[in-house]
Specification:
The protein is of the alpha/beta class. The protein has 2 domains: about 180 residues, Rossmann fold, CATH 3.40.50; about 90 residues, N-(1-d-carboxylethyl)-l-norvaline Dehydrogenase, domain 2 (Orthogonal Bundle), CATH 1.10.1040.10. Helix content is about 45%, strand content about 15%. The chain has 11 helices and 8 strands. The chain has an 8-stranded mixed sheet, with helices on both faces. Helix 7 packs across helix 9 and helix 7 crosses helix 10. The structure holds acetoacetyl-coenzyme A (CAA) and 1,4-dihydronicotinamide adenine dinucleotide. Acetoacetyl-coenzyme A binds next to helix 2, helix 7 and helix 9.
């Protein structure tokens, strides 16, 4: 595998692209506008500069990593990719449209992976004429730091695709965990309802946001509290995942809290909009 296209230059796409270029892969980072691509690349450069400051990377290593990266708004630029990793908005209709498009453009042997947090790989794959080459490759945020990749087969995913993705995951210094297709897979089925519960606790006035987070950090040894984690993930992403859990299982325990909806409607998405449960410098 040499040339990889990452679709979506947001929180996850930029992180995935960063790790890939550091490992020497040629990456095309695609988004809908140059502005989104520039923002993603700016974040990558900032992270690489931080690594230099910490003595973990040299200036020339940074330059050679960045040489591996090409931003593009043109879908044609991905035609010769060996693998596409889609990290666009968590919405089934958007993902199906992307997969139908890339299926037409990419060479027949290319693997098409989705970084979806919760959606059905089988349904995404059904938008293509190569469902055997479609797979879930679920990274965690922040990608350069988090070691896990959940690898999820759809009903038609073949063995060669599974093996290739496991191999790439290890080459990226990540640990693959294979998961059967199920809403939210493993981590998000546990993590996002916990965040939703923390939002309920806040809405009921049981404790202030800072204290909810402090309680979970000191009482459960979590590295950050659930509300800060919601801000890191993005409240829109958290809501999308709760919606999938709720609609797929039809169980009221997965009902998104109205405060989560209100936050998303008010564009209080967390770090990416500068304000969520806490404030951040834009
Ligand atoms: C929604 C989904 O589908 C799935 C998901 O992703 S769910 C979310 C999963 N992620 C988590 O649970 C993250 C929980 N939080 C954490 O682990 C930590 O708070 C954290 C790693 C994000 C930050 O750690 P911290 O100790 O609070 O801060 P900080 O000291 O600044 O960072 C620790 C390290 O991470 C690095 N780091 C932090 N944010 C980073 C980023 N966005 N990109 C790259 N590196 C980053 C720092 O550079 C630092 O590196 P060194 O150890 O080499 O110095
Ligand atoms: N935020 C998180 O912590 C995690 C998110 N994910 C998943 O990763 C995916 C992306 O999430 P984020 O990076 O958080 O979202 P984001 O909102 O930060 O970025 C999404 C990007 O996709 C772009 N996009 C939308 N439609 C597109 C299209 N048709 N073609 C190209 N680009 C398009 C948007 O312009 C945006 O820049 C989602 O499926 C999400 O569920 C997975 C793991 C963790």
């Amino acid at each position: 595998m040499n040339k990889i296209c990452v679709i979506g230059a947001g929180t996850m796409g930029a992180g995935i692209a960063q790790v890939l270029i550091e490992k020497g892969y040629n990456v095309v980072l695609r988004d809908l506008s140059q502005e989104f691509i520039d923002k993603g690349i700016k974040g990558i450069v900032k992270n690489l500069d931080r690594s230099i400051q910490k003595g973990k990377m040299t200036e020339s290593e940074k330059e050679s990593a960045l040489k591996n990266l090409q931003g593009s708004i043109f879908l044609e630029d991905i035609a010769d990719c060996d693998l596409v990793i889609e990290a666009a908005t968590e919405n089934m209709e958007i993902k199906k449209k992307i997969f139908a498009e890339i299926d037409k453009i990419c060479k027949p042997e290319a693997i098409l992976a989705t970084n979806t947090s919760s959606l059905s790989i089988t349904e995404v794959a059904a938008a293509t004429n190569r469902p055997q080459k479609v797979i879930g490759m679920h990274f965690f945020n922040p990608v350069p730091v988090m070691k896990l990749v959940e690898v999820i087969k759809g009903v038609a995913t073949d063995e060669a695709t599974r093996t290739a993705i496991i191999r790439l995951t290890k080459a990226m210094d990540k640990t693959p965990v294979e998961v059967e297709e199920a809403p939210g897979f493993v981590v998000n089925r546990i993590l996002i309802p916990m965040i939703n519960e923390a939002i309920g606790i806040l809405a009921e006035g049981v404790a202030k946001a800072e204290d909810i987070d402090e309680a979970m950090k000191l009482g459960a040894n979590h590295p950050i509290g659930p509300l800060a984690l919601a801000d890191l993930i993005g409240n829109d992403v958290c809501l999308a995942i709760m919606e999938v859990l709720y609609s797929e299982f039809g169980d009221s325990k997965y009902r998104p809290h109205p405060l989560l909806r209100k936050m998303v409607r008010g564009k209080l998405l967390g770090r990416k909009t500068g304000k969520g449960f806490f404030n951040y410098n834009a």
